[in-house]
Design brief:
With about 300 residues, the chain is mainly β. The protein has five helices and 22 strands. The strands form three sheets. It has a six-stranded antiparallel β-sheet with strand order 1-11-10-21-22-12, with no helix packed on it. A six-stranded mixed β-barrel has the order 3-4-9-5-8-7. Strands 14-15-20-16-19-18 form a six-stranded mixed beta barrel. Strand 17 and strand 18 form a beta hairpin. The chain is globular, with a radius of gyration of 20 Å. About 35% of the residues are buried. The N terminus is likely disordered.
Length: about 300
């Protein structure tokens, strides 16, 4: 029996050592948002917003002159506050680190004076296990069967895909009442938390929380809109409580912020406080508090 145990342990060690090392990409954290650089077709150093809230990838119209693209169709773009028709380009190649994705479709969206060239959506993330490490400012792309990933200290949660949008079950606590519902995960948003308009209206949240200001937002559909900012007493997320968060209440009548399938969306001003591992294939996501926990909200 001892020989069998030793033999099995040896096989397990060999299997781990044979794992392909992860592809590691450095990222910059600018105004709460994560940015990486990729090569698109033959053009290098294209700056992308890393966006878990986008199920497709985007090239900004202003960046089109940098990248050789062929426009070959139109599609409907569902932004946070509305829907519009946009051009798209198919059959593109995207390289990040040692990973190359072929036949990538880019939607072309006018982001105005945004300081990035495109959006890196979940279409480019799937097929890998993704680790976002805010201590080292690295994103690591692991093979889906990798057994070497260190999950020490992480909280494991079920990853729900709501119309292809990643979401987790979390809670907001107001006047000692806990609302436990699904919230989307939107690393491409630079706010803390936006409450979808149906949930905000149905629970009269504007009357139960203190209004502390207003926020102006621009959706990918091109709309610019204003939302009240209120003070949320507590949020329960990954079995941790965070207190006194400024959150926005959407009044949208169309677009993703008008969904009834999720209560709202955590932006990266909140999500950056957790190192994150996303396992799309098995439907799990892992969170661990990091050095950004006590950084201020703005």
């Amino acid at each position: 029996m001892k020989l069998i145990v030793i033999f099995l342990t040896l096989l397990f060690s060999i299997a781990i050592s044979a794992q392909k090392p992860p592809t590691i990409l450095p990222f910059s954290l600018e105004n709460n948002s994560v940015y990486i650089y990729c090569k698109v077709n033959k053009t290098d150093s294209i700056k992308f917003l890393f966006d878990t809230g986008a199920d497709g990838s985007v090239i900004s119209i202003t960046a089109k002159k940098k990248v050789s693209l062929t426009i070959d169709g139109q599609s409907e773009n569902k932004g946070s506050n509305g829907v519009n028709t946009v051009d798209y380009s198919s059959h593109n190649t995207v390289q990040f680190g040692s990973i190359q994705k072929n036949d990538v479709q880019f939607t072309l969206i006018p982001y105005g004076s945004a300081n990035f060239d495109g959006v890196f959506g979940t279409d480019l993330m799937k097929g890998k296990i993704i680790e976002i490490d805010y201590h080292k400012n690295e994103i690591r792309f692991y093979e889906e069967n990798d057994l070497s990933i260190d999950l020490t200290g992480y909280e494991k949660m079920k990853l729900h895909m709501v119309d292809n949008y990643p979401a987790v079950e979390s809670s907001i606590v107001i006047n000692d009442k806990e609302y436990s519902v699904l919230f989307g995960l939107d690393s491409g948003a630079d706010d803390a938390l936006t409450i979808a308009s149906p949930f905000a209206k149905n629970n009269a949240l504007s009357k139960t929380m203190k209004t502390i200001g207003k926020a102006t937002a621009r959706g990918s559909d091109g709309s610019v809109y204003e939302m009240p900012v209120v003070l949320c007493p507590a949020v329960k997320f990954a079995h941790k409580y965070l207190y006194n968060l400024p959150i926005t209440l959407s009044g949208s009548t169309e677009g993703i912020d008008a969904t009834e399938k999720m209560a709202g969306f955590f932006g990266n001003q909140f999500l950056k406080r957790f190192n994150t591992i996303i396992d799309f294939k098995n439907g799990f996501i892992y969170f661990k508090l990091n050095k950004n926990l006590y950084s201020g909200f703005n």
